[in-house]
Design goal:
alpha/beta; six-stranded mixed sheet; 10 strands; about 45% helix; globular; binds coenzyme A
């Protein structure tokens, strides 16, 4: 696959996706959102890929937000379309992938950049990362799910503090608040994420997909997450991976999962 704003590398069953617009601090324009959608879709349907790492190119930014130059003259109708299409194509899409996505936050993650990281299943930040939702400083609010996901991750009070003040927080605060799972030195960020991805890779892919679905169900008000869990749990028993996992345990050997 050819991309203008991304690079995609395959490393032993792990897809490394890097947003590559360094001259714009990897800001998400429409073309980049579309390419991310296409790349994530391709990775998710590739059975050899068991985990995805998402990062930004260069040392300065993960993603410094949605590309402000693209929407500065939008009206209410266009803004509604921008938000809806972006959420469908990238943010909700990422959160609902079957393959776990780890955001490796290597610098500024602002606005749409933090929203992208929050759509990932797991976040790790380098110590130089700065995170924020500064949209109110532009006269708008987060439109790619930030008002919802930030409150889910750090609680309502901290979310509104970040959103209303438009201030960035440091990586250490993000870790303390549960916005990121770990903080590393910049040079250790990708190795740390690769090591985590390899641990995920050793487990049953269909079970991981079922776990993502069941955990996500908790955040959809009209869905009963416990019911989703019952059905996802039961479906695991119909997979070859369940037979392999339980047999391997009883035979005292390492399981070899095929994702079937
Ligand atoms: N949209 C469009 N372009 C952006 C951008 C964004 N969200 N963030 C950065 N850029 C561009 C800048 O316009 C600049 O382009 P130029 O060289 O053609 O002028 C380039 O990226 C480098 O950014 P610059 O502002 O010069 O870097 P800096 O180190 O001085 O500041 C930031 C870094 C992240 C603090 C600053 O770029 C910023 O505040 N960005 C916007 C963050 C934001 O509000 N995001 C939410 C959008 S909804």
């Amino acid at each position: 696959m050819q991309f203008n704003n991304l690079t995609l590398q395959y490393k032993n069953g792990i897809g490394l996706l890097t947003v590559h617009r360094p001259e714009k601090l990897n800001a998400l324009n429409k073309a980049t959102i579309l390419e991310l959608h296409q790349a994530l879709k391709a990775l998710d349907s590739d059975k050899t890929v068991r985990a995805i790492i998402l990062t930004g190119s260069g040392e300065k930014a993960f993603v410094a937000g949605a590309d402000i130059s693209e929407f500065s003259d939008f009206d209410v109708h266009q803004a509604s379309q921008l938000s809806r299409e972006g959420q469908e194509l990238l943010f909700d899409f990422t959160e609902n992938l079957s393959t776990p996505v780890i955001a490796a936050i290597n610098g500024f993650a602002l606005g749409g950049g933090l929203e992208l990281a929050m759509s990932a299943h797991i976040r790790v930040a380098s110590s130089n990362a700065r995170m924020g939702l500064p949209e109110v400083s532009l006269g708008l609010i987060p439109g790619y799910g930030g008002t919802q996901r930030l409150a889910q991750l750090v609680g309502k009070g901290r979310a509104l503090q970040m959103i209303a003040s438009a201030q960035m927080i440091e990586a250490s605060t993000a870790e303390q608040w549960g916005l990121v799972n770990a903080v590393t030195d910049p040079e250790d960020l990708l190795p740390h994420c690769m090591s985590l991805a390899q641990k995920i890779q050793a487990n049953a892919p269909l079970a991981i997909a079922a776990a993502i679905k069941a955990v996500n169900a908790n955040y959809v008000p009209e869905i009963n997450g416990y019911e989703v869990e019952i059905s996802a749990f039961a479906n695991c028993f119909g997979t070859a991976d369940f037979k392999e996992g339980t047999s391997a345990f009883l035979e005292k050997r390492k399981a070899d999962f095929t994702g079937e």
